[in-house]
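Hey, I'm writing a tutorial for new members on how sequence and structure tokens pair up, and I'd like a real worked example in the thread rather than a made-up one. If someone can provide the structure for the chain below, I'll link this post from the tutorial.
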Amino acid sequence: MKPRDTIVAAVFTLTLSPALALAQDQPWLKDRRYTEGIGIRAGDLELHPGIAAEFGYDSNFFRRDEEDVASADDIGPVGSMRLRITPSFSLSTLSQQRHEVTPDAPPPDVEFRAGIAATYDDFFPVSGSERGQERLGQQRNVGGSLDANLTILPQRPWSAVLDASLGRTIAPSDIGISNQSFRRVHAGAGAELVWTPGGGLLDWRLGYRFAGTFFELEEYDSLTNMQHIIRTRGRWRFLPRTALIYDASLGFVDYPNPGAQLSSHPLRAQLGINGLVTSSFGLLAMAGWGASFYTPTNDGDVVQDFDSVIGQLELKWFLTPNPSADPAAATLALSSLSAGFTRDFHDSFLASYFERDRGYLKLTYFFGGRFLLILDGGVAAHVFPGIPADNGRLVAAEQPWTDVRIDASLFGEYRFADSLGINTTLRYGNNISSTALTILDESNAQNHLGWQQFEAYLGVRWFM
């Protein structure tokens, strides 16, 4: 790898998120309601095997900007055909549907769920520079995820939840500035104590969570980070269909081998309401405050912190009225249309943080037990503070800037049988940016942040 590639890669990899971003981006792996069928009963357990294959087109896997293709060290956008094969398997204690066969039975002492999935990715370049096609052809690899969740004494006044996850991600920079795909491992574990007195009108949770991102290549050791999060959350149902909710967390983010990155203690606190206005309309409204509390590397360093309002507002229309008094009890059978807005902040490997303000729409439609449609899209403003040239970082952008991020995806699946379906996935992403960052080395090269990407796949999936 050339020195300039190393500098760019070390600084411009993906931005961080509090949630673990595992390797898979297929909708059925993000939500088990879409992953699993009726399952196979084995005593007190349910088994859910599955396998999927997809073939399609990716216009810009590395998310490169057209303006950078003239550089001798750059590859520019590269288009390719792409093959993905994804086996998956999950097991759990008996679901609520099977428990309803004996409704008077006492609740179980434990509830358990675990899943594993792997995705083999292969690329067949069809357009772009020769160097870029060669680089993309070398990206074939395997990502995956493993997770487990254990609830002790569910549906009791006192219960506990334990969970753990492990994932391997093969993905490009979310900023769209590097020529590399970054192999990294995500590890997470958590424990939560739950108090639900009386008839369940109140529940209070106190928990701890560890989240770590570990880069496999030595060149990116400075990006490896670990987070420790203490969180409390809960709800008070003061009306049959409406609850007051709260959520507060304090994090401790540490980079064991820091380069330009800063450790921090992010604090978030929100209060809101979640309820069903009618059986067809739901409302979620939360507002609070967030602050990043970055720790300067040296005395006298200027540190830019986020310190502002955060929150979420969402309106949801259930195309099929929700029969439950709990607005969070929606199942796959409840088709819905949601519109909302979120405001939050996240760590960034560019500046210290970025502010994200996103409006979104989402339609989930499941018809006749055969046709599933998921349409999701949004527009976000990613607001970055400036990066002074004398702050010890490897890039500079003297003035704050805002990127506009557009994302849209459509997933449709027709199920010939209860366990076999064909599907299509369309996805579009566009980072609209007029900003070009200066690399602080002998080249003083400019790297543009804008990119756009289109993906289209056809697939077949078998699941139980």
